[in-house]
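Thread: sanity check for a docking pose with NAP

Original post by kr_44:
Hi all, I'm comparing my docking run against an independent structure prediction. Below are the sequence and the ligand SMILES. Could someone generate the full complex and paste the structure tokens? I mainly care about where the ligand ends up relative to the chain.
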Amino acid sequence: MNVLLTGANGFIGRNISAALTAAGHRVTPVSRHDSIDFARMNAPAHWLSHLKHIDAVINCVGIIGETGSQRFEPLHTLAPSALFRACEQAGVRRVLQISALGADETAFSAYHLSKRAADDVLRGLDLDWFVLRPSLIYGKGGKSAELFMRMARLPMIPVIGDGLQNLQPVHISDVVTTVMHSLTSRESRKTLDILGTETVTFAEWMQWMRRAQGLPPAPVFRIPFRLAMAIARLARHFNPMLQPENLRMLQTGYRADVQPLVQFLGREPLAVQPRLFFSDAVHTGRPS
Ligand SMILES: NC(=O)c1ccc[n+]([C@@H]2O[C@H](COP(=O)([O-])OP(=O)(O)OC[C@H]3O[C@@H](n4cnc5c(N)ncnc54)[C@H](OP(=O)(O)O)[C@@H]3O)[C@@H](O)[C@H]2O)c1
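Reply from moderator J.T.:
Ran it for you. Here is the predicted complex with NAP included:
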């Protein structure tokens, strides 16, 4: 297959790209690195010339916080919606959208709402679509994974409130395997949460990250939610991930049923192991 892969040089995109190439597919990459800025791709006509000889589209573009011209609505909603509509016009039937866990009817953040708006457009089109909603992804080179790794190395681990927020982290391998299976599956028109089997609290996750880095457990340093929000209002100028709204999403915690993923993959997601924190995706295929 010739696959148009947006966000091809990002954390998820480059792991998908490697798996596609290894499986013998051709990757047509799209990112600003390839001179295509989503901020300017908000009409189907902008995409049609890029869809010639394309068999499938995977959208992995996204931001976790707004900076400068990088805004949620154009990047998460307008450009992907235009791309999906162009796919319908061009007859590119198989379209995979990387959304995010929580981009559902409970969404309240601009991040999730802007993702959900594009997911809804895709779900309304006559295409063989998949909306894939990963939980927090860990593995080598992920921006949020690296930020958490750095935080876990501190002598005291900062947590918001009691640090008991729920996470169901998933390894990048399981995300890539789900994408690869979605690409060729006889099933389609499916919204699937991609998450691990283990639910951990944020404080536990930090300790796991310490262990993976060969460090002993550290005491936690509890930051009251209001103070954390005030700090985030300043810190967002240094790191867009540290947005107050991202803290609100962390505070909310997201859990979902892993069984639909288990059924789709034909196996459980990978159990957390120290070496996985430093590994790229290994596309494990689907047991027959
Ligand atoms: N990582 C996670 O834990 C996680 C979990 C759930 C959902 N997700 C979602 O998955 C998607 C990808 O995440 P990621 O971790 O791979 O992020 P990432 O490493 O930051 O990659 C983002 C990709 O988007 C591209 N991009 C950004 N702005 C662009 C623009 N204006 N025009 C065209 N391309 C643009 C980037 O390329 P250039 O900068 O070169 O343009 C890059 O390829 C995001 O939507 C994210 O919300 C991620």
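The first strand starts at residue 2 and ends at 6. Hope that helps with the comparison, let us know if your pose agrees.
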